[in-house]
Amino acid sequence: MTMAGHDRSGLRKVRIYGVLIALLGIMMFPFYTMFTSTIKPSQEMFNSPATLFPQNPTFEAYFQVWTQTDVLLWIGNSFLISLGTVALTLLLAIPAGYSCARNDFVGKRTFLLAVLVVQMFAPVVLIVGLFDVIVQLNFYNTYFAVIIPAAAFTLPFNVWMLYGYFKTIPIELEESARIDGASQFQILTKIVLPLTKPALVASITYTFLYAWNRLLFVLTFLTDSSKYNVPRGVFSMVGALQTDWRMMLTVSVIGIIPLLILFAFLEEYIVSGMTAGAVKE
Amino acid sequence: MGIAEQYTENTPDSRYEQTVGYLRRNYRAYLLIAPAALFLLSVVGYPIFETFRLSLYRAPESATTETFIGFQHYTTILNSQIFYQLVWQTGRWVVVSVFLKTTLGLLIALHLKGDIKGRKFFRTGFLIPWGIPYAISAVVFRWMEHPQYGYINAILLKLGVIEQGIGILGNPQTAWLGVVVADAWIGTPFMAIIILAGLQSIPDQLYEAAAVDGAEKWHQFRYVTLPQLKSVLLIATLLSTIWTFVSFDVIWTMTGGGPINSTATLVIWIFETAFAQGNLGLGAAYSVIGFAILGVFAVVYLRVYTSGGEEL
């Protein structure tokens, strides 16, 4: 390569990283405002105009938050709701995905397309009808009132994700196990599911995040504040007349920490889950 | 085969036996999809039916009695001014937000495509806004846009763009912009990741061939990248359009649809009517209109999705 070519590719690199860092800076800016606001003492937080760099950083808000809000309770509820949704979704999606991948039967195409349409049926346009169902089932104001709708709207993604993955597992593996005398259930749990791990992790992560982040179901179907999840808890701090911004932002920072940890470890799976279906190989 | 035998072959009786035989051979397949199918029928299918039914009734949330009123809710809606305001505001919301998400997502993806050191770091960073609760993002944007204490005002004041703090969300003319920005921020990561995956599946040979032909960067983008990316872009914008149309948490947390309904979209109005005002019947009628619009999107999406010869 000539000198000129070298310079050009060097310049190109500088330009690319420059743009990337600028874009990342823009995308990270809300997190910056969120975090720096919470480490200001309360009188500095209400400086007008705002100080862009905290003058006297302090973590005092983080000590106050435990006594002044129910942040731990909300995080606990979020875990409960998310794990419940994951369990219910997998319980329904694994058999359905497996059946579609392994059998050819009348109505399979209809089933799979119907599932795809459900994904389009956003919860909010269904919320009125769903309200009636939840009330009739006597689930109003119980955790089920949130878990059941969340599972319904994550099920489509899970069925398709697992169906696609099960199809790639060679049937010969199952046939040889059957010859060795393994039962249907053993084949699924001992041979198929371990091979499906990447798809399962993607499914679980997607479902977990969906249930963790949703405000609508809790807002509509739960009135008991001791059952609030993180988004509902944060929303409950938005006051009609006055909002305790300092505590609210501190709860927000704490409320997303579990998610950041999840992201750090499972980024690969989250990406593969997001792209499943949208990009054809 | 004799005529008599042919005749018996077609009697309902033998068709019945055929069905039974088919089910006997395939019952396991049906047994395995049954729980998921029944679950979706009762938690999605039945509420759809219930919404249609409720839309024909006067049904206050507080009362136990419902009165049949036919299509009265629909005529009320079509004769109301708010409905046309909602159509305009929803359209503006979807178009502007999806445009921002697509442009920013494309920009990020194009820069992440090459041989980038620390790609995992960048990708994770760009992904995070998508993965945190929308209500939290909404609260943070509300804080950033605060007329007195907000960082955006502080920056604009420092740069000398404005002379005193402006209340973006408090003004009916500008509030929708303040909300659109938050929604675009949340939706950009999905676009970036999908487009990036699409870019990475374009064979290198195409670029090499274009380079040999002396194609400039812009020409490569115009004649190689864009055509190859077409189907991915189409699917991604379609999905994003649907999600933006039904986006609820962000608007509800930031403005609740206000001030004076200027940030309300159709789905915000469903919730407002049904639960804030307690008019389930009218809310259901608005939902049915929402179904109709989603139905159009769904048909287009299924067409696009199955057009690639996807085997089911």
UniProtKB/TrEMBL annotation, chain A:
TM spans (from-to): 16-35, 71-98, 110-131, 143-166, 187-212, 245-266
Coiled-coil zones: none
Assigned GO CC terms: plasma membrane
Main location, first listed in the record: membrane
Entry's localization field: Cell membrane
Any single biological process term in GO: transmembrane transport
A family per Pfam: BPD_transp_1
Gene3D superfamilies: MetI-like
InterPro entries recorded: BP-dep_ABC_trans_perm (IPR050901), MetI-like (IPR000515), MetI-like_sf (IPR035906)
Chain ranges of the ABC transmembrane type-1 domain: 75-266
UniProt keyword terms in alphabetical order: Cell membrane, Membrane, Transmembrane, Transmembrane helix, Transport
Topology in membrane: Multi-pass membrane protein
Classification via PROSITE patterns: ABC_TM1
PANTHER family: INNER MEMBRANE ABC TRANSPORTER PERMEASE PROTEIN YCJP (PTHR32243:SF18), MALTOSE TRANSPORT SYSTEM PERMEASE-RELATED (PTHR32243)
Family: Belongs to the binding-protein-dependent transport system permease family.
Name of this protein: Carbohydrate ABC transporter permease
From TrEMBL, chain B:
Protein name: Sugar ABC transporter permease
Keyword Transmembrane helix part of the UniProt annotation: yes
PANTHER family, per the entry: BLR7065 PROTEIN, SPERMIDINE_PUTRESCINE TRANSPORT SYSTEM PERMEASE PROTEIN
Family of this protein: Belongs to the binding-protein-dependent transport system permease family.
Membrane disposition: Multi-pass membrane protein
Keywords: Cell membrane, Membrane, Transmembrane, Transmembrane helix, Transport
Domain ABC transmembrane type-1 residue range list: 87-301
GO terms under cellular component: plasma membrane
Keyword Ribonucleoprotein: no
